[in-house]
Design brief:
single chain; 292 residues; 13 helices
């Protein structure tokens, strides 16, 4: 399930590009609406409204999930805009550097400590981002925005004491009315809204986009419980690798020497980070065996 979710996320640019004629915010509104319908409907079929009432009864948790809903909506909006605007390669960079941004947030917010290898990985990745900013003339804002928004989303979901899919359902409730409002605004301003403004093919694709939002998240939430986190850490690179391949080979986006060096530094940082994580996990397992 987990590997399948990452494969879907990696190949999804091939789907979103089919909707290039639709404004990015309209795509986003349909994504929130139909993804929410699927998640909320599935949770209600499983256990009525208890999943929602138990969260709303805890104001702090409800507020945290409202914040996470805003962050994931911002992340989705930026990603869709990047894909339909021809920036798939830079979007993939965002998800390559996301694990390292998670590490920095752990240090700055949660008070976690890094060893030398982890600090070295962060420094190498920072050099890669700085290289891209200097040589391309501007920082990779799309990549940084995607990595930052998703890392902050992960932080809130880590702190929120709620089951993964239930939390996603509450987020969907928060995003439901804004998605309806966006579609109504598009309907009244001639930029497309609900159905009828686009050909039937586009309408069906917009609904399918909701399924492509909800189903991988549900599969990931359940699959991640059944495999070690170290394996999840390696599997997460499937998605940006496939996104990069889509950008370069399917959409013909440039990937010259400057980007190759910048990406190369970030890949080296990720390799250092992954090897260090594997080493520390192995030492922890050896310590547990010795204790027993």
């Amino acid at each position: 399930m987990t590997a399948g979710a990452f494969v879907i996320w990696g190949l999804v640019p091939l789907f979103w590009v089919l909707l290039r004629e639709v404004p990015a915010m309209q795509i986003m509104a349909h994504r929130m609406l139909w993804g929410g319908v699927l998640v909320i409907g599935w949770l209600c079929l499983r256990g009525g409204l208890r999943w929602f009432t138990t969260v709303i009864a805890r104001p702090r948790l409800a507020l945290m999930l409202a914040g996470s809903a805003l962050l994931i909506a911002a992340n989705w909006s930026l990603y869709i805009w990047a894909v339909v605007s021809g920036h798939v390669v830079e979007a993939s960079l965002g998800y390559f550097i996301n694990p390292l941004v998670n590490v920095l947030i752990g240090v700055l917010v949660l008070g976690e400590r890094l060893d030398r290898a982890q600090w070295g990985a962060v420094a190498i990745a920072a050099c890669g981002v700085l290289w891209l900013a200097v040589r391309l003339g501007t920082p990779p804002w799309i990549a940084l925005g995607l990595a930052g928004s998703f890392a902050l989303y992960g932080l809130l979901r880590k702190l929120a004491d709620v089951e993964a899919v239930q939390g996603m359902g509450v987020e969907s409730v928060y995003l439901f009315l804004p998605s309806i409002a966006l579609l109504m605004w598009g309907e009244t301003h001639g930029s497309g809204g609900f159905f009828g403004a686009w050909p039937l093919r586009i309408d069906l694709l917009l609904v399918t986009g909701g399924a492509l939002t909800a189903l991988p998240l549900i599969g990931f939430a359940y699959g991640v419980r059944r495999i070690p986190l170290a394996v999840v850490g390696l599997l997460q690179y499937i998605a940006p690798s496939l996104q990069l391949a889509c950008g370069v080979f399917a959409f013909g986006e440039p990937f010259g020497q400057v980007r190759a060096i910048g990406f190369g530094l970030i890949w080296i940082a990720l390799a250092v980070f992954a090897v260090d994580g594997w080493r520390r996990g192995r030492l922890a397992r050896m310590a547990r065996r010795a204790a027993t």
